[in-house]
Amino acid sequence: MSPLTQEALRRIISTLSSKNEELESFLESVDNTLTGLQDESCKVMSDLEAELELLRSTLEDKGAELRDIIREETQRKGAELQNQLSEGKFALLSCEELLAFANNTLAITDEEEFLKAAKLIKERVTMAPAFRLSTRLTASENMSQFTVDFSGERAGLQRLHFLPVPGTPEINIPGCVVRDNTVTVSWRPACDANAADVTTSGPVEHYEVEYRKTNHSNSLAAAGGACWEKIHDIRDTHVTVSGLKFDSDFVVVRVRARNKSAAGEFSEPVALETKAFSFGFEALTAHAELKVQGDTVTWEPQGIKGHDPRLRGKENKSSSRSGTPSPSKSSGNRAGRERFTGESYTVLGDQEMTGGCHYWELCPLLDWKSFSVGVAYRASLGRFDQLGKNGGSWCLHASQWLQTSLSVKHNNRAKALDWPLPQRIGIYCDCSNGDLMFIDVDRLRLLHAFKAKFNQPLVPAFTVWCGGITVSTGLQVPTFMGSFLSTSRSLSNLAQ
């Protein structure tokens, strides 16, 4: 088989492999969507039953309220009429008795007795309840003020339907910006993205954005996984996510609109490139007295009292004792032969730089005494070599042991820097152009710039003695580096 045919077959195999990955991601996405569909169906069904139960409960409560009002009014009127009825019966009985007494008085023949009885009748008539009782009803049987007509409400119930779902927004890719480890996502509302959706989509109250890191450039494959980070209650059509660590090649974003409790469909996911230099510490080759934990390195002497600053007085009592253990006595010799040992309290980064621009930052811990940070050719450093003391390493050295000093070192030459000790140092390395710069990030000051011809892969390199450092990686080259690079290149041009 000819080489050309083999190459063509390899391309076909590569294409088929990519298609296989795409189909696997697609099937995983379909499977996840089916599972999500069942979950969402159960959720909205439960929400519907809850809303209907609230309607029933509200209707029952309102019916009970209206019934109570009618009962109260009936009881009030009934009590008043019952009172009138009782008073009327008593007045009628009194009137009948008085009438009978008056009829009997007419039969009296004795004039004196008749006049006496007539006078009594007159007095009783004046005081009779029948003549003091009002014959006007205090209440009527009319209850028309409680007539109801719920036809409008019934019509409203007939119109009950699901909330109008907002349309799907569209991510505005040209408006998305990735800079200084922040991602600004911009999108167009559904009414702008598709005019036909205006009549069918509901109002929008706010937006939700989800994002996740991935190394897939294919948005479908990248969106197939779980663990989306969520940002809620966005009132604008853009949002900025800051403080990200770019330890993946891409960030996939998607957005959807919400109104009340109804959420629309997510937009098509978009993968935004977030390449940055991310590395860890090569713990296996670190000096035995350096403790590597995550992004932090601390110096922890293993029973070597000579390192303790509090024992300086004891060191001076004997010239034969050294404040730093000799290589032959260092605990590093008991570890693997590739560990740094002796006075080289060094640890390297685990990622090489072979070209392009890279940036990371270092912050000393509160109890630090001395540290160095820079780059080196991995092969140029022996187990006992210190940074800046050979031609294959470049570093910035800071110390506040005995006296405060800040300097840069390369090829066993040191240059003192007249600047306060920085608390946040940025390291910029352009392997292709041979630029190595150290920045005081808090004061935005260029501390020093090395110009070299890097002819081997470089690794980040660190030395820590007494105290510790923490390193931030996954950082893009910040925009403020532009001004430092322009200044450095201008000075280089003048020097030529």
What does this structure look like?
This is FSD1-like protein. Keywords: Coiled coil. The protein is an alpha+beta fold and 496 residues long. It has 3 domains: 18-139, no CATH class; 170-191 and 203-273, Immunoglobulin-like (Sandwich), CATH 2.60.40.10; 281-301 and 339-494, SPRY domain (Jelly Rolls), CATH 2.60.120.920. Helix content is 33%, strand content 25%. It contains 8 helices and 22 strands. It has helices at 3-106, 111-127, 129-132, 151-158, 190-193, 219-223, 312-317, 481-495, and strands at 170-171, 177-179, 182-188, 206-214, 229-234, 238-241, 250-259, 262-263, 270-273, 290-293, 296-299, 346-348, 357-364, 370-377, 393-399, 405-410, 413-416, 425-430, 435-440, 445-451, 458-465, 468-472. The strands form 4 sheets. Strands 10-11-22-13-18-19-20 form a 7-stranded antiparallel sheet, with helices on one face. The chain has a 6-stranded antiparallel sheet with strand order 12-21-14-15-16-17, with no helix packed on it. Strands 4, 5, 7, 8 and 9 form a 5-stranded antiparallel sheet that branches. β16 and β17 (413-416) form a beta hairpin. α1 packs antiparallel against α2. It is elongated and about 160 Å long. 23% of the residues are buried.
Key traits:
Immunoglobulin-like, Jelly Rolls, 7-stranded antiparallel β-sheet, 6-stranded antiparallel β-sheet, 22 strands, elongated, FSD1-like protein, FN3_dom
CATH topology (level 3) name of the largest domain = Jelly Rolls
Class by SSE composition: alpha+beta
**What is the oligomeric state here?**
single chain
Averaged pLDDT: 85
CATH architecture designation of the largest domain:
Sandwich
Element order, helices and strands? HHHHEEEHEHEEEEEEEHEEEEEEEEEEEH
Could you name the CATH class of the largest domain?
Answer: Mainly Beta
